[in-house]
Amino acid sequence: MTERRARQIKLAALLGNLKASRILKLEIKELTRQIMNDSHTESLQEQALKSNEDALDSIICLYTSRGYICDTASRINIWLT
User: Fold this and answer.
1) 27: domain range?
2) Distance of alpha carbon 68 from alpha carbon 49, whole angstroms
């Protein structure tokens, strides 16, 4: 479980770096900050830790989808102009 926590903390830090992305910024709302908080992750036990992992995975999926949508929209815009 310690390794799982460490991976989540690292993933949260990597996601946090996307706040400064010049290509596609990740906007982190207050509720999401708790999911990405090291102290919060350290305090979680079994099922709560799994739920936190699922939430981080969801953020990755949404971010990736948003990037795909933005890329597709820009291609359509180029095609229409």
Assistant:
1) 2-80
2) 29
The C-alpha atoms of residue 78 and residue 71 are separated, in whole angstroms, by 11
Pair 77, 32: CB distance under 8 Å: no
Instruction: Report the domain count for the chain.
Output: 1
Looking at residue 4, its amino acid is R
Burial class (CB in 10 A: 0-12, 13-18, 19+), 21: exposed
- Which residue, 62, 67, 53, is CA-closest to 12? 53
pLDDT per position as a tens digit, 13-42: 999 999 998 888 888 888 788 999 999 999
Enter the pTM of the model.
Answer: 0.79
